[in-house]
Specification:
The protein is α/β, with parallel strands linked by helices. The protein has three domains: 69 residues, Roll (Ubiquitin-like (UB roll)); 121 residues, Rossmann fold; 31 residues, no CATH class. Helix content is 38%, strand content 23%. The chain is built from seven helices and twelve strands. It has a six-stranded mixed beta sheet with strand order 7-8-9-10-11-12. A three-stranded mixed beta sheet has the order 1-3-2. The N and C termini lie far apart (96 Å).
């Protein structure tokens, strides 16, 4: 009887352990990510629907670093349903890799050109992401968006904003310098309504502003006309010499 029951079980296993004929991939994936996942699955040897060890397959699929979590379920009689929870990129790291919110490097089949771009000569991706998230948190309070954050070989950080303005923060006291820049931006810089080339916040007691060359040229061209008008009206005006060089 025992042998007979065992034979019945084996026969039933063979009958129902069918080859997997269809794989359904679900999740918020792009077409390129769908194709990459299908290609990855195609390179795996899958046994029958009953013989398949689901946790092992999930581990194999999570080897794709952008697949944060993968859940695999059987669907009788011969299908697999794979749900992919992907890791969303937050920034570009170089031409072929991206960074997650935690600073993990992601190899993605798609390009996300609209994301901010980070680069660092000395700091790690994780350290760079921490700095980016801190600075963007402050910048957002003034409606500014960081499009680029770069560290030089000397360890100095440059911030590029959506408007084209560049902020030089240096290598130390980044948070304090960012706050000082934002105070100047809120009270003076944005009220000028003039294109800014860069702001240097490395000074201990303030910031230096360089307006764009086109705007400076227009300003310099107006100075002689204004001076002539002032002379004709016998008005005495004092101008800040720093304005003429755009700082």
């Amino acid at each position: 009887m025992v042998i007979g029951a065992a034979l019945v079980c084996v026969a039933m296993w063979i009958k129902f352990d069918r080859p997997i004929d269809k794989i359904v991939i679900e999740g918020d994936l792009t077409l390129a990510e769908q194709a990459a996942m299908q290609k990855h699955i195609g390179g795996l040897e899958l046994p029958g629907i009953l013989s398949l060890v689901l946790p092992r397959l999930e581990t194999q699929l999570q080897q794709m670093d952008w697949a944060r979590r993968v859940d695999v379920r059987r669907r009788w009689p011969n299908q697999l349903v794979i749900y992919v929870y992907k890791e969303s990129p937050v920034a570009q790291w170089d031409d072929h890799t991206f960074l997650s919110a935690d600073g993990d490097i992601l190899q993605l089949p798609d390009q996300y050109d609209q994301l901010p771009r980070l680069s660092a000569q000395l700091s790690s991706p994780r350290e760079s992401m921490e700095i980016f998230r801190l600075l963007q948190q402050y910048a957002a309070r003034q409606g500014l968006a960081i499009l680029e954050l770069a560290e030089t070989a000397q360890g100095e950080w440059h911030v590029g904003f959506e408007s084209g303005m560049v902020l030089r923060l240096g290598a130390v006291e980044l948070e304090a310098r960012m706050q000082r820049f934002l105070r100047a931006y809120n009270s003076i810089i944005q009220r000028q309504r003039r294109p800014v080339a860069y702001v240097d916040a490395r000074y201990p007691g303030g910031v230096a502003v360089r307006y764009s060359e086109i705007d400076v040229a227009k300003f310099d061209a107006l100075v002689p006309i204004q001076a002539q008008n002032w002379g004709q009206s016998n008005a005495v005006q004092e101008t800040d010499g720093n304005l003429t060089d755009g700082r």
